[in-house]
Design goal:
Radius of gyration: 16 Å
Structural class: alpha/beta
CATH architecture: 3-Layer(aba) Sandwich
Order of helices and strands: EHHHEEEHEEEHE
Distance between the termini: 15 Å
Largest sheet: 6 strands, mixed
CATH topology: Restriction Endonuclease
Number of strands: 8
Strand content: 15-25%
Number of domains: 1
Length: about 180
């Protein structure tokens, strides 16, 4: 079995690039990237990124390290003002803001989950940062045929939000490709 590569792309608004807040957020992303880059974790991610697998299997691989860093699993109550049953996979408070982690697998692009995750961060009053974990390559069925390249697509989809004319209140997104 060949070892897959992991990728990371940080998108941040220009007005936050040089802030202490972004440095802290970026440090968390570096620690998570370092974790998923370990050979044994890579092997687990690769084994879980197969047709029919759920994003829950990927979440379980990330859970241990996310909890060590202080993230809370599936935080409830972050979206009370919207009367919807929304919750992120993980949440961490950072000073006056926070980071939401969302983990996707098969539905990343087909169901526009990347946009839903971005929107959730946009409307969350206590988080302005999103860490989004998506597959580099999506294999839909047992034929092994590549059905998409979610990581590349998500980067293309979210980059325009970090051009000044398109700013939202999401200050930064880190996209992890596994």
């Amino acid at each position: 079995m060949h070892m897959m590569a992991v990728h990371k792309m940080s998108l941040v608004r220009d007005d936050y690039k040089n802030t202490e807040e972004w440095q802290i957020v970026s440090d968390y992303s570096d620690q998570l990237f370092e974790y998923i880059s370990q050979p044994d974790i890579l092997q687990s991610l690769e084994a879980a990124n197969v047709p029919g697998a759920s994003s829950q299997e990927i979440q379980n691989i990330l859970l241990h390290r996310a909890k060590e860093l202080g993230f809370r699993d599936e935080s409830k109550g972050l979206f009370l003002n919207y009367q919807r049953n929304l919750r992120p996979d993980f949440y961490l408070e950072v000073h006056e803001t926070g980071i939401i982690i969302e983990v996707e697998r098969g539905k990343t692009n087909q169901n526009n989950m990347d946009f839903l995750d971005f929107w959730k961060c946009h409307i969350c009053e206590v988080a302005h940062y999103l860490f989004l974990f998506v597959p580099n390559i999506l294999i839909q069925n047992s034929s092994g045929k590549i059905a998409g390249r979610p990581y590349e697509k998500v980067v293309q989809n979210l980059e325009p939000f970090f051009q000044i004319a398109n700013y939202t209140n999401v200050r930064g997104v880190v996209i992890f490709g596994y």
